[in-house]
Amino acid sequence: MDSEHINSEEEELFEHHHLVVDPGQEPLRIDKFLLDRLPNITRNKIQEGIKNKFVLVNNSTVKANYKVKPKDSIQIMLPKPPRDTEVIPENIPLDIVYEDALILVVNKRAGMVVHPAYNNWTGTLVNALVYYFQHLPTMEANEGRPGLVHRIDKDTSGLLVIAKTEAAMNSLARQFFDHSIERTYHALVWGEPKLSEGTIDVNLGRSLKDRRVTTAFPEGEFGRRAVTHYKLIKPLRYVSLIQCTLETGRTHQIRAHMKYLGHPLFNDTTYGGDKILKGTSFSKYKSFVDNCFKMMPRQALHAKSLGFVHPETARHIAFDSDLPEDFRGVLEKWEHYVNHV
Predict the structure, then answer these.
(1) Same domain, 38 and 124
(2) What is the total count of domains within the chain?
(3) pLDDT tens for each residue of the chain, 341 residues long
(4) Are both 224 and 201 inside the same structural domain?
(5) Is 72 labeled as catalytic in the residue annotation?
(6) Please, are residues 144 and 87 in contact by the beta-carbon 8 Å criterion?
């Protein structure tokens, strides 16, 4: 193995990640190994980091084709010190639907990131939570995300439950693990599903081409099992309002499942819904769709209802929310369009 020790006279580096390879790990290229273990990073970036000597294995630099061995000690060293996991409290208004001593239910607006992460260290829901509440619990291995037991995407609006105590967090986490939490979403999708209701039971995982995207693996060779139950609420010829009920909660589950079904979410840039996928090529129609995109510059997805067992009373409680103004406005435009053309 070609390796060289870091010269102490080089630029000072700071440890950002420290991984110890599992005793049962099969030989695997280090760039592939790190790709599965480092969030929000591409293989090219990892290879670039290895080339720049930012990756150490047992205190020595390696090449990208180095194969990790059981109990290898891997350090990711970068020129800037790592960010503290301490969350900065910020006075950001919250739309509180329900609150008691143990839990909080909020209606998150579209555009708000749920927790601090790369490129979004401030202005998040968690920044607002730590301003209003002290001593929120944090799940193990979830540092920097106090109170959170689940999340929704930045440009998805809707209901989230927050745990205010350790007991509440444990109870809610168990319910999510058992898939007993009831979560329904309303989505505006392109086209009309052939069946008015159905179940999508198809594995989902990170795309092998673009790690930022979730993709379907119908053969089950990759990914994890994901189950979405859908029901057609309102067909509008070119688009449809549907209700999705989550049985599992994978990243981008509804967005990826609806694309797999052939009905991407309206204006979902990541999954191809920001183009005209149904309808004519007439300029008047194109202008109408463009206006809808401008009115709702995000994927048309809203976490509408939430139901669970209260951590203290053990009674089932449920919450519902109205569609936000942008979603409602686009829906009304489509209803008016199909009724007058």
Answers:
(1) no
(2) 3
(3) 333 333 333 456 777 788 888 888 889 999 989 987 876 678 888 998 898 889 999 989 999 899 999 999 999 888 766 655 567 888 999 999 999 999 999 999 999 989 877 666 788 998 899 888 877 887 665 666 788 899 999 999 999 999 999 999 999 999 998 999 999 999 999 999 999 999 999 999 988 888 789 999 998 888 899 999 999 999 999 999 999 999 999 999 999 999 999 999 999 999 999 999 999 878 999 999 999 999 999 999 999 999 999 999 999 999 999 999 999 999 999 999 999 87
(4) yes
(5) no
(6) yes
Tell me if 338 sits within 8 A of 237, measured CB to CB. yes
Cβ of 250: how many Cβ atoms within 10 Å?
Answer: 19
Q: 104: domain range?
A: 96-177
Q: Is 229 buried (19+), middle (13-18) or exposed (0-12) by CB count in 10 A?
A: middle
Same domain, 211 and 240: yes
Residue 167 lies in a domain: yes
Residues 281 and 240 reside in one and the same domain: yes
- Using CB atoms within 10 Å of the CB of residue 192, give its burial: 0 to 12 exposed, 13 to 18 middle, 19+ buried: middle
Is pTM beyond 0.85? Reply is no
Look up the CATH number of the domain holding residue 144. Answer: 3.30.2350.10
- Choosing from 31, 72, 153, 268, the catalytic residue is 153
6 in a domain, yes or no? no
Same-domain check for residues 117 and 61: no
